[in-house]
Amino acid sequence: MTGLCYWPAIEFPEVSEIPTREDAAKAASALLDVVGDFPFSNDDHRSAWLAMVLTLVARPAIAGPCPLFSFDANCRGAGKSKLVDVASIIATGHDMPRRAWVRDDGELRKVITSVALEAVPSVLFDNLTGPIGGPSLDMALQGTSWTDRILGKSETTGALPLRTVWMATGNNIEYGGDTARRALPCRLESPHESPEDRKDFKRHDLLAWVKSNRGPLANAAVTIVRAYFAAGCPTKGGLAPWGGFESWSDVVRGAIVFAGLPDPSRTRVIVRGTDRSAEVLRMLHVGIREAGNAVTAATIEQLLREQLVPGQQDQYPSLRAGVMEMCGSEFSSRKIGAGLRSFVGRVSDGQRLMSRKCHGNVSQWYVEPVAIAAGNGGDMDRSPPPVTPLGCPEPFVISSVGDGGGGGDGSGPASSQVIFVGHGDGVA
Question: Which terminus of the chain has fewer Cβ atoms in its 10 Å neighbourhood, N or C?
Fold first, then answer.
């Protein structure tokens, strides 16, 4: 009566109605056996790969956003892209769709808009050659709805569901903006100089083998999640929180730990080491102390523009490095001030960057220690979480706004009342 015909290309084994924890453990072992030839850094990273498989399979059960799954390695040819394709074939029967990574945030926003319009379930940014991150990607990773201006028109797309699972591959990936805290890395460490020349594989044509065995492999993935829910989600709420990805953590991390594997979020420790913004903040902390720990943006610019005498040692090496990384070679007091505002109050190594108004209403920058009391934020202000009033629609992200034309005087049906909400670090 619907006019739809279900004609599966392969046969899927029936999933038990109430699988046990032992069933989940066996299923996890079967899936990890598929990627046994890959040189994972450790078992935590094997869990991270399995987390991507379960995310693709169980995405409808996850109420909120999912993290970026990043696959990096110490060299080319280690198998990063193939790992992603294996997971995609298990979940969908197809290789993972690729998109080219664009560094310009405006162009990246257009890519995300096209993905939202097409309702693409998953996207891979393959073979990154530079840092990944930016405001548009951060918004896409942290929300489940998206709106943007339609190219060539003075109208928007409206609120589009955005439930895409994002992935990236590259060698020794670096993260820009706030992307580092939204990424779950999976790292390969190959001992070979040319991994692509290896011949000691258990399965010669792995992707073809996965396609021909997709039925039991998909069954195994569903079994893990089903067993976890059948048991009442026993690990839900018992894992260390990951802000912004609570629903994903409850479903995917909980199911993996339930199956007896390590918590995949433990791989995030390597992301913190490649977070460029964190490194810049550390340099600025040291640099501002080098300059006297009570300086204005204009003073910083003046100090860095002083010509160094040949053979003279630089008195402000950390400050210079931090400002150059933050603003580039074309720095100015205005750019320096804007950059410093984005770091206000952020804690690193027990220190935080703060500002106060001095003569002429000019901001003076200084670094101070932070005392954090147990169970709260110490001397930092803590605001209550925002509450969405009953009956209000779910907020959505506005990445750009075009001129919508005349909206009337508010008396007719053409009028529109819009509340604009924004957030950021050090908003000016």
Answer: N
Gap between the Cα atoms of 384 and 285, Å rounded? 29
pTM for the complete prediction?
0.70
Bridge partners (DSSP) listed for residue 351: 348, 369
Task: Return the higher-pLDDT residue of 413 and 10.
Answer: 10
The pLDDT assigned to 34 comes to 96
Question: Pairing relation of β-strands 347-348 and 145-147?
Answer: unpaired
CA distance 324 to 311: 21
pLDDT score recorded for residue 392: 39
Where does residue 408 rank: exposed (0-12), middle (13-18), buried (19+ CB within 10 A)? exposed
CA of residue 124 relative to chain centroid, distance: 13
**CA distances (Å), origin 5, targets 1, 121, 215, 219, 239:** 10, 22, 19, 22, 42
Between CA 329 and CA 268 the distance in angstroms is 31
Residue 255 in 3-state DSSP? helix
Q: Can you tell me which residue has the tokens 């509340």? A: 419
Spatial contact of 54 and 222, defined as CB atoms under 8 Å apart: no
Structural domains of the chain, with CATH:
21-273 (3.40.50.300), 276-369 (no CATH)
Torsion 78-84-85-87 (CA) sign: positive
What are the CA-CA distances from residue 155 to residues 119, 152, 347 (Å)? 20, 9, 41
- Given a cut of 90, whether residue 339 has pLDDT beyond it is no
Torsion angle in degrees (nearest 10) through CA of 193, 194, 197, 203: 80
> How do beta strands 122-128 and 165-171 pair?
parallel
What is the Rg, in whole angstroms, of the alpha carbon atoms belonging to the chain? 25
**HEC letters along 17-66:** CCCCHHHHHHHHHHHHHHCCCCCECCHHHHHHHHHHHHHHHHHHHCCCCC
